[in-house]
Specification:
Blueprint (H helix, E strand, L loop, with lengths): L3 E4 L7 H23 L3 H5 L1 E4 L4 E7 L21 E8 L1 E9 L1 H6 L6 H27 L5 E4 L2 E4 L13 E2 L9 E2 L2 E4 L5 H16 L15 E5 L3 H12 L19 E5 L8 E5 L1 H6 L3 E15 L6 E13 L5 E6 L8 E2 L2
Parallel strand pairs: 1-14, 2-14, 10-16, 10-17, 11-12
Antiparallel strand pairs: 3-4, 5-15, 6-7, 8-9, 11-13, 13-16, 14-15
Helix pairs in contact: 1-4, 5-6
Length: 347
């Protein structure tokens, strides 16, 4: 089903406009169906949910502890869970409009030219591009607590009020109060293929050993590596490391411990001046509701005629929310020999 609502103009029955109102609608519907079938960054890296509220709040809870021994004839020890942090993601409205002029309509009265088809198609593509770009930019700006996207301020804090990537993530339970965890690192990550192989193993170990709110290891497996789009040497090295059965560049025929463990994602718009990468567990992202995207209002398209200009215009409105609930599904590593603010050394 197409992810938009189409409304015909009300109270207007201009026969000239009627000749291509429906063809344009058909083009928009067709383009929407095509775009929906083409999965992008949003579908692969985010949990997509529907919403019918102004915002969505995710409330965290600690887990039950392990079962305790009960002597014969005695009852079980009562246990309970503790509410931890909560995260609210508010929805943001976006709009776009395009116009078909009266002159263009006159010239296309008996058929739609190629220039008439391009605008509706680009209109729908712009909607899907907006969704993918805001999701990508949210990850790209993950060391910040907020960023501005198309004039809208987007909150990037996690449940604990810190940025997605931080070396001081807090626990939300009294049991673990005062203790912190890190998912932001720096060090040598790309001086050689062997070093990159080692770093991927270290980062996977970090993700696997992230602790839950009771301080117990969660054991999630990192299976996605995300890299910038403007680091061709890093991209080539990552692909060699994850795609080679043996350690790249080694004369000892060593086994490559990272072979087959990763899906590589080159993140559009992530342009950096140094080598850096993210690793993520798709299972943890889903179970912990890590990267979140909420559809509040799908693309709502309406059309009408401007009485002053006689131009035929199409207006699109949509509303959605993007943000992060948990941080325990993902980690960021920056190639640096000196300390990076907010990060922890990999050494």
């Amino acid at each position: 089903m197409s992810n938009f609502v189409y409304s015909k103009m009300s109270g207007k029955n201009d026969p000239m406009m009627g000749k291509f109102e429906h063809p344009i609608k058909a083009l928009i519907e067709n383009e929407s169906n095509i775009c929906e079938k083409q999965k992008g960054i949003l579908d692969f890296l985010f949990n997509i949910e529907k919403s019918n509220r102004y915002a969505e709040t995710i409330i965290g809870e600690s887990d039950f502890g392990t079962f305790q021994h009960a002597k014969e004839g005695q009852g079980a020890e009562n246990d309970n869970v503790e509410t931890t942090f909560k995260k609210t993601i508010e929805h943001i409205a976006f709009m776009k409009e395009f116009t078909i002029t009266k002159e263009m309509a006159d010239d296309a009265k008996f058929g739609m030219g190629a220039n008439m088809k391009n605008k509706p198609r680009k209109f729908v593509r712009a909607y899907y591009k907006t969704r993918n770009q805001i999701a990508a930019q949210a990850l790209i700006n993950g060391t910040k607590t907020s960023f501005t996207f198309n004039k809208a301020v987007v909150d990037l804090t996690c449940q604990d009020g810190l940025a997605l990537f931080s070396n001081a993530h807090k626990y939300g339970t009294e049991k673990m109060k005062g203790k912190t965890q890190t998912n932001y690192f720096y060090g040598d990550i790309s001086s050689s293929a062997a070093k990159l192989e080692e770093v991927l193993g270290v980062l996977a170990n970090k993700v696997r050993n992230f602790k839950d709110e009771n301080g117990e290891t969660m054991e999630y497996v990192a299976d996605i590596v995300i890299i910038p789009c403007n680091r061709p040497k890093l991209e080539a090295m990552v692909k060699k490391v994850v795609g080679s059965e043996r350690t790249v560049g080694s004369n000892d025929n060593d086994i490559n411990t990272q072979y087959g463990n990763w899906t590589v994602v080159v993140l559009p718009g992530w342009e950096t001046t140094d080598d850096r990468l993210m690793v993520m567990s798709s299972e943890a992202n889903e179970n912990l509701l890590g990267n979140m995207f909420y559809n509040r209002v799908p693309l709502d398209i309406r059309n009408n005629i401007d009485d002053h200009t006689r131009d035929f215009y199409w207006n699109g409105y949509c509303r959605f929310g993007v943000g992060f609930n948990s941080w325990k599904h993902i980690a960021l590593a920056v190639n640096s020999s000196t300390a990076v603010t907010g990060a922890t050394s990999l050494a």
